[in-house]
User: Fold these one by one.
Assistant:
Number 1:
Amino acid sequence: MKTLFAVSTEPRLKLRQKLLLLNWPFLLLVVSIALVGAAALYSVAGGALDPWASRHVFRFCVGLALLFAVAFSDIRWWLRSAYPLYIVALLLMVLVPLIGIESGGARRWLGYGEFSFQPSEMMKVVLVLALARYYQWLPPERVWRPDALLPPLLMIGVPTLLALAQPDLGTAALFAVIGGGILFLAGVSWVYFIAAIVGVVVALPYAWEALHDYQRERVLTFIDPERDPLGAGYHILQSKIAIGSGGLSGKGYMQGTQAQLNFLPEKHTDFIFTMFAEEMGFVGALGLLALYLLVLMFITYMALLCRSVFARLMAVGMGLCLFAYVFINVAMVTGLVPVVGIPLPLVSYGGTSMLTMIVGLGFVLNAHVNRKVTFRPEETGALW
Amino acid sequence: MSKKALDYGAQKKPDYARRLSHRFSRRALLVGAGQAGLFGLLGWRLHQLQILDSSDYRLLSDENRMTMQLVAPSRGAIYDRFGTLIAEDKENLRVLVLPAFCESLPRTLDALSTVVPVSEATRDRVMRAARRQSGYYPVLVAEALTWRQFALLNVLAPQIPGMRTDRSAYRHYNHARAMAHVVGYVGMAGKAEVNEDPVMRLPGFRAGRTGVEKSFDQDLRGSPGSTKYEVDARGRVVRELGSRPSTKGRDVVLTIDHHLQTVALDRIKDQRVASIVVMDVVTGGILVMASTPTFNPNDIAFNPDLSQWKELAKNRDHPLHNRAVRGQYPPGSTFKVVTALAGLSAGVIDQEEQMRCPGIYAVGRARFRCWRSHGGGIDVHRALKESCDVYFYETAKRMGIDHLAKVARELGLGRTYDCGLAGQKPGLIPDKAWKRSSRFEAWYPGETVIAGIGQGFVLSTPLQLAVMTARVATGRAVLPKMVLSGKDEAEPWPLLNLDPAHLEIVRNGMIAVVNEKGGTAGRSKLKLPDVQMAGKTGTSQVISSSRRHLLPGWDGETHALFVAFAPAHAPRYAAACVVEHGGGGSRAAAPVVRDVMTELLQRDPAGRRPFVANNAVAAASSALAAVENTQ
């Protein structure tokens, strides 16, 4: 325990230095994406700030304050508390099936009344921290060894299974993508990944058995939406019609017929991209994707600048999280993957997912601010 | 190479950290490239949907568009107690446009102007609304169309894309001027209300602004229905997909008797500012609440004329204000009823005690005048009958302000009532605690003395005075009611915490005021056989007589007040009348009450069966058939 709280020999950065080290163009990109979200929500509400756009902006501002708080906090503190935070998140996830609030056939929420939150959201961030912490600790020569792979696999596996049990296919997929990505970047051998892919293919028929009926239905209607155009395939079909009818330049801001006429379900949350693509067309949709891609490229660039393993993996892990969100959401609304209920980060209306993403981006900036920081072996401490 | 690095022995085995770092860089770039590649996949997919197959999807999108229209409920009617229709929804034929379905909005408006006049201002408003909000919200172009115009537009409908006609409702008020203050009026919904209830977005939807229209708005409003249509790209209805009818708002039956209300208003309308309240002392139902100057709500509720509205709002006599609940006046001598009861209950006076009135009363160095030198032998009965100030100065001084305030509140003064009358003022019943907390000053004995005759800080509204009178008349804690529940009479009001014998003494004093020789309202004795009225006059100063010259003319005149109940020995009705700056209570206010009371007693509304609204059969409303089927 002594080494865990050892005072670092590294000089600590002053806030003024941190402000200079912050990646401001990156922040500008993030703000512009959120503003696109506000504009889209304004349009969804039929040209009104209420009920979504104004609260979206408000939440984003609260989120920005959090982002700064995270970005300017001491990276060593996060290194030390990565495991405890992970344990807390895991315990909360275990609590969900016991005392959680049920809504829409799934228990995902903890809390009371207005103040509810999804522990799985917290887990997305904390999982990255815990894995980064593990590889910061793991002596480089042991990364190759199979026994060193066991703890991180457990760290990823337990929350993934808990998410599957909720059941929340989207979040489970997200955990798997983030976890697998971090293992890959940490330097785990190719062999394991190839083995895992083979394993998944073999296990697929069994997984199919384990899926809930509604999940199976989603996969089936995904493969052939016309199977049930007024039932389960309705969302995908309507979404494709809306996006497709937008054409090159779109129907014009606030003029989208499909979204405005209430064809789309969840048009202010999961299907906001559909509405955006309908109104702003191919040009607008590509523009928004380009903004996201720029943010992702920035994250990779910032990760490459980092000296410590913890900072690198932290940054790149959050990047993976953002990527998974955006890709799954857009692929979902364009009919490339089944509908899994994943919002578009910073654009969709919704408090928890916005908070997760923006805190995640705060960690990216934290890594960037502390890019020159290295940890001495005793600072990393034991596995615990 | 530093010595330290050598100590770590980094050279002996391969530099794993370095290799790992390089591997991270390689793989990070690979992952980055992978992300870009997968985004490329999304781009390809969008290209496929939006460029290659766009025309197919556009066709699909044009083929089936659904539109949902809210169907506004029609507003509940308002009746008086005997079923006279006071406020009702009348049919309003309108023409609207849905900008999204217009090929060109100006051309649609041009086409419309061949049938209905479309002014330059209207054109501006429609164009602005179309830019500001989504094109799927209908914008009102013209309303109150004639049947000829309406029919013509419907015939032309196929040639005018984006046009809609509908049959909405507007609010019409009967007996408008007499009922204006009680019933209130409706107006366009404010911004906050629009957010709270989507039905408010319907063009021309109106919500209660004042009076019963406001306080019973939730009841009257009803709940909207909706109709789902499938429309084609030009906005023409292909078929109706289903609908949910709207529910008409509940009808409200007032306790007011509009005939008496009209009589009362006629009686006071020659005064510049006056109001009168009459209530049933058994049920608390308000039978008359008239206030002058008044206004016509029909001018405000529908197509308000701006100049007319400004004139009403700016008028120095505030015709929009309901004086009966918003006018706060020093109650003057009508308050002596309270002082007498308080004195008796405190035990500082009794029925026998007699005082002398030399016309002046001294407290310390201050001198308080009586309106007349009454001489000796003034007991409580004579003090009330002749309204002797000195007697009540002394009574108030003996008991102190806090006891006086307590009894005043027991009699219902100094508060508002939850009876469905918006905009009530609370008046003021001062006590020591009030003065300390609001003026940061101690209470002076002289202030108690003038409070004893209802001057100084004391303020009350005509409605409060009527409630006070009703409570004195019955000895029960009567509260006013504005709306009949439709159920049979509820249980009687709880008894007041006052001695019935004391109440009897005060009531006899009030009977003497009107019916005995020398009573201040002797000239206002009822000219009806075997029925008497009891009352108390009041003349309250708005400025002390020594400073009267500072406020010359009407503004400096005294207020004339009169409270009464009848029949004197079996009270059923209580009344309060205030004529602002009307002079003496016995001259200006008492005759008004006498005339209204005469009409009232002959008509006896309390003895007749009230009207019951048929709210059970709330028929499905067809007030707003959202989209006319043009097929």
Number 2:
Amino acid sequence: MSVRRQAGVVLANTGLEVKRLYSDRDDRVLFADLCFQLDAGQLVQIAGPNGSGKTSLLRILAGLSSRYEGEVLWQGKSLLKQRHEYLQQLLYIGHGAGIKAVLSPLENLRWSCALRGLNNNDDKILSALEKVGLSGFEEQACHSLSAGQQRRVNLARLFCIPASLWVLDEPFTAIDQRGVTEIERWLSEFVSEGGAVLLTTHHRLSFAHEFKIVTLGEAANV
Amino acid sequence: MSDSGLAKLVVAVLRRDVMASLRRGSEWSNPLVFFVMVCALFPLGIGPQPDRLAELAPGILWVVALLASLLATDSLFRGDFDDATLEQMLLSHQPLYPQVLAKTLAHWLMTGLPLSILSPVLGVLLQLPAKGMLALMVSLLLGTTVLSFIGAIGAALTVGLRKGGLLLSLIVLPLYIPVLIFGSSAVKSAVEGGEYFPQLAMLGVFYLVALALSPLAICGALRISVDQ
């Protein structure tokens, strides 16, 4: 649980605000005039059919894509002006594998942690792997794990990298039913500790707190 | 950020890439096998006359080393792009420059270094006189590093494209040419018993410029490639 406590320290004044966001792809408007707000202790689910621009939106909000017009504010200031501070608070898990298949979960997470300036924290990594149900698989090459287990390795980053904003693209893909319930519990714990979560999923969330759903693909509304 | 933090970052990236490359095998063995095979075929194609081979050897060794390096370049960022670990690098709050530097050096360690170390053996095969060996090895050690850095710029620019192979060669080959000219000329001069230090010094200049500046271009190119 020490992971959680450390995550708690950096939680302060989380607030992501999207103002009049517009993006298109191949002359097709994905969303226009999109406005919503995500504060600390909240969860926002981005919903919408396939191809409605959910992933594009998350990539914009993670700062990976600049194909948009409008404003994205973080703690009241433009994202572009404080990228460094924003990235310190952000943990983005995209729909890609996020791990090297030839390396073991432990090696993958060591590297992920080192990128975030966290060195020599094998204890945390091992406890994170235990939490996602992968104890016993720490040293096994990831390509020999199942798709769901590989996804869990990627999700283990949630517990070894402190952040106050989680941006998750389809976190439930390939995860079994019990795992889904577990992830929902983790999200709810994180939110009740003051974290903010933005996620896309087609799954009907059963979530202890109230949460907002932003639907893309139709007349974008909140 | 403290210097030790940066050093740890570089070491972590270097270790991970070398480890991944060693486990996959084909990434480091393909260019090496290519280098050995093509060099071994030349005596068969040209004929075994020692003086003729010796005359051509510097050029052959350098051109084949260059092509082997080009062969390995495409995979530099491809794997990380496909498994989305490149996104993690871009979304780290730590500077991208040292990460890219470490990645490219790791790539050189797995391709250029073994090739340079093996080159004297192939020099013997191609009847390269003994006095050219040192120049061959040193010029390849310096030169293949420069080739890796130049190649990394091209790889970063084309990694977002589904079929970037040919484009990559077109971008990278013109930039390879100065390295090839000075590299093979150093070996030639050494074989002829002349002064070869100036050419090596020139390669040294390329080396330092590539080491300092190309990561900037690579970082920019990666951001563009991922931004889609």
Number 3:
Amino acid sequence: MDYFERFAIPHPSPAIYASMVAIGFTVIALIFVLTYFKLWGYLWREWLTTVDHKKIGIMYLISAIVMLFRGGADAIMMRAQMAVPNNTLLDAQHYNEIFTTHGTVMIIFMAMPFIMAFMNFIVPLQIGARDVAFPRLNALSFWLFFMGAMLLNISFVIGGSPDAGWTNYFPLADNEFSPSVGTNYYLFALQISGLGTLMTGINMIVTILRMRAPGMTLMKMPMFTWSAFIANVIIVFAFPVLTVALTMGTFDRLFATKFFTTTDGGMDMLWANFFWVWGHPEVYILILPAFGIYSEIISTFSKRNLYGYKSMVGSMVIISFLSFLVWTHHFFTMGQGALTNSIFSITTMAIAVPTGVKIFNWLFTLWKGNIEFTTPMLYSMLFIPTFTIGGVTGVMLGMSAADYQYHNTMFLVAHFHMVIIPGVVFAMLAGLHYYWPKMFGFMLNEKIGKITAWVIAIGTLLTFMPMFFSGLDGQARRMYTYTESTGFGIWNMISFIGAIGFTIGFMLIVYNVYYSIRYSPRNIGMDPWDARTLEWATPNPVPFYNFAKQPHVNSVETFWDSKNNGHELFPEPYEDIHMPSNSGMPFILACIFFAWGFSFVFSMWIPAILSTIGIFICMALRSLEKDPGYYVTVKEIKETEKKLRGVQ
Amino acid sequence: MKNRWIKLIGFFTIVTMLTGCDPLLVLDPKGPQAEVQAKDIMLSIGIMSFIVLIVFVILAYMLFKYRASKQSPDYKPPYIEGSTLVEVICVGIPVLIVIYLSVVSVDSNYKVESTPEKYEHEEPLIIYAATSNWKWHFSYPEENIETVNYLYIPVERPIEFKLYSYGPITSFWIPQLGGQKYAMADMLNTLHLAADYPGEYMGRNANFNGKGFTENTFNVTAVHQDEYDEWVNDVKDTAETLTEEKFDTLLEPGHVGQSTFNGTHLMFLPPPVHVGEEVEAAISEDDESQQNKN
């Protein structure tokens, strides 16, 4: 029995027991539904073994949305706890677990898969490719991410959640101060999903460099592809740092090394440095693809080409370079002296310049345009003012002497939410509405969509603007409660009201999906938005081989040119298409990785060794396997195209 | 429609009234360092509001002027590549602003990292501030006394806090006297503060350090030098002596309230030897000045 005691929750509460029951019932219900409707085969053939970049993109999307609700539930609990002084809804330990999970889930398991969803789905279509360069590796990336996410998400019912903050600063996260297995979950969940991200990085770079359609030079790539390319370059440089840091942390916790300890020569700020050498570029990994989506949407609905294409590309390259030179601004207060702080203060503020260039280029894209307020455009137009507020507060935080007063306060919390929510979340929702017809073959309801956009934007302002004030009034972040005399009450109450607004907004999105599945017309044609780039030259939804014929590209907006300027997009005849075959290996390998991580979390060495061997066996099998793929014949292509396009 | 506006205005009036009475702590400085920081904050808020305003105005203008409902239905927007002049302006003005803010920032950095100019000629009071989960231990080596979870400081005199930790990283912060700095296990940090006015100030650990983080606070009482001397004498007369055993029990995780001792723990448990950059500089300066005297 002793053996199983390790799985018990160290700090249980009725809510956690209720979640356990709910999870149990959900799993049983899922198994029942799959069995009753005989869907196991469908699930295996069409999803678990797929190597199709579009299906992988959709699986990323679904995971991201599920995680959005998980992280959102955490957020609303925190805001409810803070709404009034001396609240006892949550105790300190639960609050600590919740904000740790909220941060980790939102960054690693919500924002990352959301951008991965769009990169996977859109990039190959935008460059006229039939899949990514390494389709099976792509499936492995997804399943590793998925298993990492699952590993973190079971922590709160088996063994206990991590509770050292999403930044997981050692020495706080070391065994001495965080004895539960929660931090092990954090380390292994991030390690496993981080491996997946690194593979995606390599995969996307090769795809974009090697698989562009004839005629598409680098400077004729659509802006989203450019942003994805640069984001993936950052991934390849930044993620190995995380991998190393997590490994060192794991060794400290499981094998008693002394990298980050308070004694025996450990360096307690070493983790923070490693973490932010990865963590700051990570912010740009998230936001650059979001900027790419905005560029596509703003240009489409202004009915104009993107203003200053070259400076847009240039500014992203500069941002990616600078993103590696600013990590110290996350701890100006470490005591590195005035000189070091001055250098990092200047590099930090310098990032505002290329970012400002992007904002102005979007504004000038509207100039002389013919602006149509669709839902994606509305999100983009709400993004510009809210993001500007978030962005300029970033410049304020960059002034290191003043940062001594902002650091670790709600002011900082307000700042990064005001950049990440308009910058990334609005972009993802805009992209969701914009690309929904491409993914599923029908539109989301515009009226509900626009109401939702306003509700979420107002929710953002209501939730996060008060935090600027409470931060300047001395409210530190991560406090689980406060007394009435501090005067923080009013600010936190407004925040809570804003959080309710958010909740309503996200409920409206769910309702919109439901409503549109039921009532939205299905015959929307190829190009419902009158778009400009190559992804819209395919039917909706996209056939599995993407393009029936090889497209030829003449400009950044080749599809627009084919519609309006007589560009011949598909000059070649039909040819047989070579496609990669499905494989169960990525899913199985990722499952073994899950077992591997789980065994290490609980220091169960025999299963850990067995799963390590299993991983190597899988890799060996893959190396020895011959997989020539298969061909889709011209006849099949013609039939499919006829069905999808009606005539041709 | 009108009703809604009245309600909105009413709401904001209430909010400002509720909060307007007490100024925000950080913007209500009571010491020279906090004043430098508050000035920087207000300056940057001013410049940033100007930038936000420009973006809002351009956005509003574009959306109003070029929205589809206002154009003729067959309007075809032109193809515009981008203009070097516009790009130069879009880069140039932000660069100028960043240069200006950099100058201010660098200047302030050196100010907050040294003894406040105002009190340069006063002899600084050195206080060692150490944290353990979840307490603050303040040692006054000159006076040879130690307090837990509260501070007594003289006004109009520079104070050098020597920060370190018996556990996770913490951050020493008294918003009205100046910004925070980390306290770590393997390094001694120096924070220069001073109080201009007598009063009670809130101090806390601002860096998350586990379960007892929220209550990891301390009170600061700033008094005139004579009152301060009185307090020191009082402590020396009445407080019990800090023994090694007593300090060990204090280090155990938990909350202990306020207490006062004769003697400091620095005798039997010296602070970390590795010092931060600016401390090193200060020490070498001290050495030089002493050599000059000799």
Number 4:
Amino acid sequence: MDYIDPEHHDGTSDATPGGEPDKRRPGEAAFAAALACASAVLVWSALGIENPFGPNGLSSPRSIPLATTGVMLVSAALILVKTLRLPLDRAETLVRDILPPVVLVFALLLVGYGIVLRPLGFLPTSALFLIAALKILARRNWGWTLAISLGSLVAIWLIFRIVFSVLMPTGLVPEAELIQFFRNLTPGGAS
Amino acid sequence: MSIAMDFLTVFLQPQLLLLVGLGTFSGVYVGAIPGLSVTMAVSILISFTFSWEVQPAIALMIGIYMGGVYGGSRTAILLNIPGAPSAIATALDGYPLAKRGEAGTAIGVTTVMSFIGGFIGIGVLALAAPLVSEFALRFQPRDYMLLAILGILLVGSLSQGSLLKGIFTGALGLAIGAVGRDPLTFAERFTFDVQLLEGGISFIAVMIGMFGVSEALLQLHHVNKDAIRQKISRVVPSLATVRKHLPLSLQTSSIGVVIGALPGTGSDIAALMAYDHAKRVTKNPERPFGDGAIEGLVAPETANNAAVGGAFIPMMTLGIPGDAVTAIMIGALFIHGLNPGPMLMVDQPDMFWSRCRSRPGGQRHRAAVHTKQLRRQDTARTAVAIHDRIPRHQGRASGVQCRSEHDLSRRRYRSAGSPCATRAFVGTEDFQHSMGGLWFKRVCRGVRAAGNTRSAAITSFDQSSRETGCSSRLLGLVHARSGPDRPAL
């Protein structure tokens, strides 16, 4: 059974929120505060939504956004207060149990993936991401890493792009020309 | 008798059975891949079936639809990443079971319950389609609003541990749904002057982010741990297990059928409501909900598959799509020269039963009797029902664009509606004599409204398949095939 013993703080914590409901985990208060701040920003943004029905218009484009962000703000504030009242779990640390370096690295890798996906394109960005991910996690030789990452990327590309015609950012790769080149190789493909 | 023979002929064609199997097999794979939706798969595969006969084409599409709804549960159980929105509730208890090494049991229960749910959905479609669609059409805008509020209130039941956190995440989901331009006034909401956000945030992107990325980051905590060996010795659940959960599966199937029959809803809402129902009615589950309760698998899986049959009910009887996939299928039927709606069961009864045949064990005898009754009375009555209610459904199903499309197509269809309306009246002789000219006018107007519905369906289909890039080709064919008694879209 995959049971996480909360007493064994050896980096095997699953970081599931509420792992120990009667204690505050490291970073939990800061996260709750961040959520409350983000909710306040969203409430402010909702207040700025244009209301074509006048200030007293009951039904307007900002009614639902104001209501939902208001609920977010109130519930986030209550969560923050409840979290602050809990005693801190001193057996856990943020770096070891909640946000270990590997998680941080992958979070940054995902953010980087999102940033460079459009300029570089799906194929090069995904190839770089998969190679880096496999090298960091599996720590095996380059041949194995390249074979698995590029092989799986080609399989995914074939399924999404060729079979299901899902358009993905092409970026630097002349994808359309490549596909047409292969079509030209088949009889009747150029038509 | 001839209808029964039609049904039997269709049922016994091995080519069609093979296509249903092939479609189901493909649908399971498509449904299991997060990011590939059944809607996308069906809309793409339609283009391959343009030159086919209509029955093989429909058999393939229905197979994909049923398989796709079921296939979403695979990754939900094994990876905690639902392959489709309808499998979100399945992940709540399926994944904890897999973590315990009982993925085989979870998959087995899911498979059997999906079969039961699908069977019941198709059974209701065969036996009580007009009744259910009549009930569905009674839903007013306020009822839809209450249904939406009920869905939001399910947060209280689905959030495990902390209700406050559940409320926060529920409100966050609504806020994410509000991102983009308001559909009525085009006011910008939460776009922060980013042009990309003006079109809103895709549901699939949110689902993959919330379930897929978070699960991947959580798994990074266990990189150095040994993988759990899954018990695959027994996948098929015991008869006692099935019998024990049969009452719950019947209850949640009925939830699935009704929710599926409501235009604008779908199997995802049905699954969540069924999960909530199971939590409330199961007094002593073997394991707590959220920790691997079998009831937490039974309820959503029966409901989401039953919702497939339910979604076909308004499509087959009224020409109103129950969800995005049936909207595409209406487009497909239209392309193949059929007129989905109240006249389909009269003009093309073999088509109706070929759908029922797509799941084993259609109710043959009663089906034939039922269609005869329908011929006499329900056609006209249903057409009137459409007329009374259609504009509201169009607004709900397809938004502002459809409303403008509705007005446009109504004007166009008016000139071409009479032949269709006359045909609608053929076969309703008893009704004609008893109700007279007043009803005739109403039927005419109803069938015109049915034409508008098809326009709305095609528009909805266009919207849903726009991402795939094949909509222009399909709509081009619709244009080309618009005959004298069909509305030019």
